[in-house]
What we know:
The complex is a heterotrimer of chains A (300), B (356) and C (100).
Chain A: H1 9-18, E1 20-24, E2 27-33, H2 36-45, E3 59-64, E4 76-81, E5 90-91, H3 95-110, E6 114-124, E7 127-132, H4 139-147, E8 152-155, E9 158-162, E10 168-169, E11 175-178, H5 180-188, E12 198-201, E13 204-209, H6 213-217, E14 225-233, E15 240-243, H7 246-255, H8 260-263, H9 265-277, E16 279-285, H10 288-299
Parallel strand pairs in A: 2-3, 7-14, 14-16
Antiparallel strand pairs in A: 1-2, 3-4, 4-5, 6-7, 6-8, 6-9, 9-10, 11-13, 12-13, 15-16
Chain B: H1 3-13, H2 23-36, H3 39-48, H4 57-88, E1 95-98, H5 99-105, E2 119-122, H6 128-137, E3 140-142, H7 147-156, E4 163-165, E5 171-175, H8 189-193, E6 197-198, E7 205-207, H9 210-223, H10 230-244, H11 250-260, H12 264-278, H13 284-290, H14 297-308, H15 319-334, H16 337-348
Parallel strand pairs in B: 1-7, 2-5
Antiparallel strand pairs in B: 1-2, 3-4, 4-5, 6-7
Helix pairs in contact in B: 1-2, 3-4, 9-10, 9-11, 9-12, 10-12, 14-15
Chain C: E1 8-11, E2 17-22, E3 25-30, E4 36-39, H1 41-52, E5 55-56, H2 57-65, H3 73-89, E6 93-95
Antiparallel strand pairs in C: 1-5, 1-6, 2-3, 3-4
Amino acid sequence: MTRVRDLSDLALRQQLARGLNLETGPFVFRIQSDETPVFTGLRRLYADFPVSDEAVADFHVRIRRPPGLRRWYHPQVRFEHDRDIPFLPLPARHAFAALEWGMNWCIAGYAHHYLTLHAAVLERNGRAVLLPGEPGAGKSTLTAALSLSGWRLLTDETALVDLKTGLLWPMARPINLKNNSIEIIQAFAPDAIFGDKAVDTHKGTVAHLKPTTDAVLRMHEPCPIGWVVFPRWLNQGGPRLKARPRADTFVFAAENSFNYSVLGETGFRTLERLIRQAECYDFRYHTLEDALASFERLAG
Amino acid sequence: MNAAFQRLLAVLKNAQDLAVLTPEDWDALLRHARSAGLLSRLALDARELQLWDAIPERVRRHMESALVIAERQIRAVTWEVHKVYEALGPLGFPIVLLKGAAYAMGNLPAARGRLFGDIDLLVPRDTLPEVELRLQFHGWHSNHKDAYDQRYYREWMHEIPPVTHISRGSTLDVHHNILPLTARLKPRADILREEIVPLPGYPNLYRLGDADLVLHSATHLFHEGEWAHGLRDLHDLYLLLIHFSTQPGFMDHLMERARRLDLIQPLGLALYFVHRLFGSWADPATTAVTILKLPGAVQRWAFMQGFAHAHPDFSETFTPAGLLYLYLRAHWLRMPLYLLIPHLLHKMGRKTPAKG
Amino acid sequence: MSGSTQPAWRIAPAGTLLTAEFDGQTVVYHTGVGHTHWISPVAAAVLHELASRPRDRNALRAALATWVGPEDLPLLDEALDETLDNLAKLGLIEPQADTP
């Protein structure tokens, strides 16, 4: 099996020019781009990922410059999925971030053979913890820290729930961090590998953290749900884990799902089974050390 | 027509061919069909013919996803029609659903695997003020606040400006005729109402009669300037023709209605292109006799460009010129020249909102 | 029927009403209306009663009274009225036009 790290710089650039088949868990993205940030991002952050030789790709995506003056003057790029152009153009230096957001968009819009939830998922001792995406709660920082502390990353953004089995499927893609999360994790793990920072995006400063090799090598191993935890970082105070009613958790998860209403009754029943099997908690913390210790205890 | 385009047409005509596609074929077909708005239809065909096991696993997941979308679309349009009826039903006059919503509520084959956008209604012209008021009361609001747009729709077109529901985001197009007031052809709404067919479940909800449904589909396709779903719309027509032509005398009745409604021209175009792209919808003898005058070479070229617009891979030639021709033609057909030129100038002078 | 001035209530048609219970609390989702809610036990009971057939307020009160303790009966009327109002606002139930 060829992985991105097995390709020379030249080979990688050439494949990207034609279309590189990148395997990320259950999805193969055929990525076509001549933009250097895309090359750099793949080189550094997707080094361990397999290059698929299958003829069929799930999504054909491109990052390229739209026609017109913007080709050369304050150049911009846009993300394309076949004929879809879902986003406004971005500065060319943000090409890698555009690719990541675009890939998430494809999954949210077209992967209805799963129930997809806006949440991070990590695995420990054979069970998954689901961290739903409450805005501003510090979920990404915690996800990154856990992923560097023995928890296997499945996803930082998009949980894939199997409609038949209820298992969670991994993608193990780079973790999207914003603003001071970046510094916090760099301090937490000085050896962690980051992509180039994209400053002044509409989300602020954005950078991606390379997933661990272990997580990537195990990208085809699903796992059952163990816990749903709503983390919230506080200015001060010790860690506190408190049970959260399942009914409330269900409603939140439904409202933070990408395709719950597309799936209708199937979505409802899949989510019902997931929540029923999970222990649901609210979690308050101040230091990452406290948080990691609490999670270790939870995982038993 | 290139190989990619031909392959999509072939599997639409005969879904059994899906069983013999190579993975390379599938990689292309998935994107082409999805882009054309026809993937859900193919998925339903594949399921019906029990071809699931012959489809590569990676492709199958996308077909399953497409089936989910198809089911969701039917649920959504059914709900939306319910809400429209809640708002307008009590007014008592016949409300005629058009296009997709009519196919869905009428359980017609053309509803299969279809993506439904706006809901189109036909109401008597004199009821429009009351209809607008009731819709507003129930949460539908006009997007077009501009006085020019209001006038464009009300005076010249055949509809009130589209209204969008404030919380559901769904859009209604309320028409009083099926072609603009200013159009060169003049079908009369009261003639259409002669043959309306009641829809199950709602006392004063109807669809157009069988022949008129075909004519409206043809008129919409060949008189509108939008070609985003041209191929899908043509396929809808094909499905409608197959379904209705099993009734003896249907094709004769179709011709008669076309003459009565002054829609011979769009019907002629429709039958020609359905036959050209999908083949016969009934026995060859019946089909052959109904192919009317051949459209001119320029029209043939331009409309094929329109259908090929379903995906960039379908046309190696310079598509924008063809689409421009169709766009201009559609506007020419809608408005006399003395109105058209100021209208186009007005549109060019104003920034149009980016499509979402 | 001819003497009744009250509408019969029914579950909103053109969709499926789905409910699930977790630890004594009920969540509800109607595929047409499209929103998911966490509802009170009275609301859950009302929906359960309406699931079999449309009922007017009196019939609902009678049905609910059987499982409410005597000390709660005085509260039942107020609770029922508020519940019907809320469920109607959520779009989950609607008055039936004419009882045939």
